[in-house]
Specification:
Length: 413
């Protein structure tokens, strides 16, 4: 049977990227509409933080299980099922009642959405890993993170426009319906025998292909996985603020109306794209001449990404919405760089049969950070203000990234 051509392989990687776009569009609709939703449902900042934690807790539990499931059934079959389920749950936000009961219904929907979206990142990671050659994978993971920011970029103008015209409940339905356009694209991209063969079994060129899948508890004891988890825990809270609290910051600081947020909120995701893709390309060039079993540790790229991410502490110095959003975007570029580097480096050092499960663990680490950070951010905003929270998030970045850089392990897990 013919092997995948390079254009076919990158087509699958782009489809995986669009999976992440659909996932983030559905989950980020609440963040974009948060000023209106929290006002209409009479929710405090702390209650909003707990809603974010509810989604992340469900994702935390679901991601490793989804990764193990996808290691067995493959992303080719598993991802379409997941997209159908989470799109239906996202659309069900249309049925939100008013104040009082609305909080509990919204809480239940966020938990269900977190479980349903759990296969998104493990499945997309498996697709990139199986479709692309080892030399192309760092670039592929950089492109993969474009998907999350693409979804976050599309949602602000779409959701705010629909909410302004039809109400925030209909906006949830509209965004969910748009995401279903991914399904025929995926079926088209995976129709060939070469694509099916590539996605249904681990890559033959990997040295670790003959190793069986490692149990989750053994993966968690591997130094390379532990340092990837530590780095994710460090970077995720800053990214959570940028994605989920920036709309509320702009409304609280500059008194912008909900319908004007869309003209600003697309900018940080664009810069996130530039960070993830640019640093992925940088690392891919460094890895081009290295053996697949000994990929270079991205020390210098990671330090540069950290420097950009620390711009989050400068956001309160901005005197205009545009300035604040651009500084948040610089921080997002650093976060995108760090996530792309950490993910590619970690997955390059585990057995191929455990890639989805490892990606699920990294996604779970991100969820742990969101669970812990979201209510704390809410308390911090209510008690000390957004500036205090942004400074604290900048400080939090330092120990985790430092631990990742100092605990370098070159052995394949």
């Amino acid at each position: 049977m013919a092997a995948l051509t390079r254009p076919q392989a990158w087509t699958l990687a782009i489809c995986a990227t669009l999976t992440m776009a659909v996932s983030y569009a559905d989950r980020q609709t609440l963040a974009v509409l948060a000023p209106t939703v929290t006002h209409d449902l009479h929710l405090s900042e702390v209650a909003y933080g707990w809603l974010l934690s509810a989604f992340s807790l469900a994702y935390l539990i679901g991601a490793p299980l989804a990764g193990r499931w996808l290691d067995r059934v493959g992303a080719r079959r598993g991802l379409p099922i997941a997209v159908l389920v989470w799109s239906a749950i996202a659309a069900a936000h249309l049925l939100l009642p008013g104040p009082g009961a609305g909080l509990w219904v919204l809480l239940g929907l966020r938990i269900l959405l977190g479980f349903a979206e759990a296969p998104s990142f493990p499945g997309a990671s498996q697709t990139v890993h199986r479709a692309l050659s080892p030399a192309d994978r760092p670039r592929g993971f950089g492109v993969l993170y474009v998907g999350s920011s693409l979804g976050a970029m599309i949602v602000p103008p779409v959701a705010t426009g629909l909410a302004h015209r039809f109400g925030f409940r209909f906006a949830f339905l509209g965004v969910a319906a748009i995401g279903l356009a991914w399904l025929p694209l995926w079926l088209w991209a995976t129709r060939s025998p070469a694509a099916r063969q590539a996605l249904d079994q681990p890559p033959a060129q990997d040295a670790a292909v003959t190793m069986p899948p490692l149990p989750l508890r053994r993966l968690l004891t591997r130094p390379v996985v532990l340092r990837g988890v530590a780095a994710t825990l460090a970077a995720a809270p800053m990214m959570s603020y940028a994605l989920n609290w920036t709309p509320k910051y702009l409304v609280a600081t500059f008194h912008l109306p909900q319908h004007e947020l869309g003209q600003y909120l697309w900018m940080p995701p664009v810069l996130f794209d530039l960070g993830s893709v640019g640093f992925g390309l940088w690392q891919a060039r460094r890895a081009r001449h290295a053996p697949a079993s000994r990929p270079p540790v991205p020390v210098l790229p990671a330090l540069c990404g950290l420097g950009l991410a620390l711009a989050c502490a400068l956001v309160p110095m901005a005197t205009s919405p545009l300035g604040a959003v651009l500084l948040a975007g610089v921080a997002m570029a650093g976060g995108g760089a760090l996530f792309a580097l950490f993910t590619a480096d970690t997955l390059a050092r585990v057995p191929s049969a455990s890639v989805s499960a490892t990606a699920g663990l990294l996604a779970s680490a991100q969820s742990v950070a969101y669970i812990a950070a979201s209510p704390l951010i809410g308390h911090g905003v209510e008690a000390r203000g957004h500036a205090f929270v942004l400074d604290a998030l900048g400080v939090w970045l330092l120990p985790g990234v430092a631990a990742w850089l100092l605990a370098r392990k070159r052995d394949v897990a």
